[in-house]
Amino acid sequence: MSRIRLLPLGSADRDMVAALRPALEADFDAVAEVGEIDLDLDQFLDPRRLQYNSTALINHLQGRYASIGGMRGDSPSLLAVVDEDLFIPILTYVFGEAQLGGRVAVVSYHRLQNERYGLPRDQGRLFERLHKEAVHELGHVFGLLHCPARECAMHISTYVEDIDMKPAALCPSCRRQLATLARA
Ligand SMILES: [Zn+2]
Ligand SMILES: [Zn+2]
Q1: Which of 8, 49, 134, 144 could form a cystine bridge with 12, CB 3.0-4.6 A?
Q2: 36, 133, 137, 161: the active-site residue
Q3: Catalytic: 137?
Q4: What's the distance, Cα to Cα, between the start and end of the chain in Å?
Q5: For the chain, what is the mean pLDDT?
Q6: From the CA of 153, how far away is ligand 1's center (Å)?
Q7: Of 146, 168, 170, 145, which Cα lies nearest the Cα of 158?
Q8: C-alpha 130 – ligand 1 centre gap (Å)
Q9: pTM above 0.85, yes or no
Q10: What is the DSSP letter of 24?
Q11: Which pLDDT tens digit goes with each residue over 119-141?
């Protein structure tokens, strides 16, 4: 059975991360827990873009996790949750990033909030979007690639509207792949 450790960082909403835990346990037939670490996110801030470098954050988490023996086969996969705006150098922004087949992923809900688009705050919708992107990034960690099926959480999302179009669930093909990968 897979193990997942959720890591709310910075000022990420702890209640929302706690609510993700049972959802992800059901999605991945996994055991999930919520951890806490002390980490100053300012070190990942790009002063010119005023955004946070998601690759640098992932690399930092991986280095730190390795130093405590966390990269072993039976260690939980880490999903960091932040409300900072993330980027990678070639893109304007990212909703999240993951090490494909690795151990660490990050997801941001900064651009998942209705208020950012001049719409009324909607916590239910926000949680739904965060859940979908959490499944997507963890799917990468467990070895899944992007999926052409629109009815699949592994379908790529560029805009928040794309997220709203897809479900939080994996399509039958990705489910089968996940089962195969888990046995490997
Ligand atoms: Zn992806
Ligand atoms: Zn799929």
Answers
A1: 8
A2: 137
A3: yes
A4: 13
A5: 95
A6: 9
A7: 146
A8: 14
A9: yes
A10: H
A11: 999 999 999 999 999 999 999 99
